[in-house]
Sequence to fold (143 residues):
Amino acid sequence: MADQQEANVTLPSEPVSVSAARKYVARVLTEWGLAAGTDFADSIQLIVSELATNAVQHTFGQSPTFTVDLRLEREEQLHLGVTDSHPRWPRRLPAAVQQDNGRGMVIIRCLAKECGGRLTVTPTAEGGKTVWIALPWSIPVRS
Fold:
């Protein structure tokens, strides 16, 4: 296997794209050897759903598309990133705030931590941002 495998898809910032992003990631990770229905696969699916939902809902129409990037490095580290062109970075709401939404980043951070990973946010050259999740990978990769 090469030191790195990559895959990405760009989707319109529409609610239907959340499901498309989830299905795309599931297909790629299955091709890379991750069995569907495992706790790890389910956690990744929820992370993708939350990140894609944020890219659709919180960019206020200022990001017509979002991109999902997957990168597997040396069969050791999975990087999952969602990029949009909106300049505002995600924020954590205070625990005392009573809202029906706004907990996505808390969920994402908790899932990443449970899987032994971490979350980072990086700016793009175009003024947007990518929310990255780095997770340890211990599944033998299919060729």
Notes: Strands lie at 4-12, 65-73, 77-84, 118-123, 129-136. The helical segments are 16-31, 39-57, 104-114. The chain has a mean pLDDT of 89. The first strand starts at residue 4 and ends at 12.
